[in-house]
């Protein structure tokens, strides 16, 4: 998948799980409008994290020199693109890291604590998501908007940090689900063990598209990365996000939107 589609899918997954939009909101983990809207920005950015294993990914351009250094390091440690960083182990590692960030706090004089870690994480991931969606032209503007949301969460609505690890995990997992639907596939749940199909099974139609010679697995409903089918899915997900954001925005200002009442 392209970065823009990944970011959109991360936001859409978050809206579906946390939103209560009539008819099309799952509400599995219902949150107030602030949590849904801010979490969508975090999940969109987190949906770009697996591609930190590619030296030319969106994240590599986020900070001069440092961005490419980070992505180059991740690429080396994970064994290359769509390997370790696209595995079940990576999901667990990222979820644990996101939770650990929430423990990074600063105690104030009145014995309250400021969730610095979650604020920084929110700022960084929001920046990635905004830039991937091309809402701004420059990285400086993306960093500014990310910082503003991070500060808002930390200072104005500190109770919101509870959902931060979940938003990161959902966004990251949405990326893997998206790549699973393309011809490139993902290394599967058992990485670093990636069994390759036996020679006698490789010519079998359908199966040879789902269990690739490299050992990756796929359900290539979207075809190649950047295909028309992917673009169509991205459009549908974007429209879903717009509807979800509009609904949560109305809730935020006190407008009760109900169906059939």
Protein described:
The chain is mainly α and 261 residues long. The chain has one domain. Helix content is 53%, strand content 2%. It is built from nine helices and two strands; from the N terminus they run H-H-H-H-E-E-H-H-H-H-H. The chain has helices at 3-18, 33-46, 66-78, 88-102, 116-132, 139-156, 164-180, 207-210, 228-252; strands at residues 106-107, 113-114. A two-stranded antiparallel sheet has the order 1-2. Strand 1 (106-107) and strand 2 form a beta hairpin. The longest helix has 25 residues, at 228-252. It is globular, with a radius of gyration of 19 Å. The mean pLDDT is 90.
Secondary structure layout:
Blueprint (H helix, E strand, L loop, with lengths): L2 H16 L14 H14 L19 H13 L9 H15 L3 E2 L5 E2 L1 H17 L6 H18 L7 H17 L26 H4 L17 H25 L9
Antiparallel strand pairs: 1-2
């Amino acid at each position: 998948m392209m970065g823009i589609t990944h970011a959109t899918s991360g936001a859409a997954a978050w809206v579906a799980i946390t939103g209560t939009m009539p008819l099309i909101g799952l509400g599995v983990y219902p949150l107030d409008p602030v949590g849904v809207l801010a979490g969508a920005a975090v999940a969109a950015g987190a949906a770009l994290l697996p591609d930190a294993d590619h030296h030319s990914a969106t994240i590599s351009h986020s900070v001069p020199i440092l961005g490419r250094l980070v992505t180059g390091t991740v690429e080396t440690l994970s064994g290359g693109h769509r390997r370790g960083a696209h595995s079940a182990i990576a999901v667990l590692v990222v979820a644990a890291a996101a939770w650990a960030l929430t423990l990074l706090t600063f105690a104030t004089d009145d014995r309250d604590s400021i969730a610095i870690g979650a604020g920084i994480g929110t700022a960084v991931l929001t920046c990635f998501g905004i830039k991937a969606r091309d809402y701004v032209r420059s990285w400086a503007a993306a960093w500014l908007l990310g910082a503003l949301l991070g500060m808002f969460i930390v200072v104005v609505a500190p109770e919101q940090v509870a959902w931060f690890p979940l938003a990161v995990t959902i966004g990251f997992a949405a990326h893997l689900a998206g790549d699973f639907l393309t011809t490139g596939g993902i290394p599967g749940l058992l990485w670093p063990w990636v069994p390759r199909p036996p020679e006698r099974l490789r010519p079998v139609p359908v199966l040879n598209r789902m269990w690739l010679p490299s050992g990756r697995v796929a359900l290539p409903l979207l075809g190649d990365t950047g295909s028309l089918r992917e673009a169509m899915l991205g459009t549908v997900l974007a429209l879903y996000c717009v509807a979800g954001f509009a609904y949560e925005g109305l809730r935020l200002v006190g407008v009760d939107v109900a169906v059939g009442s």
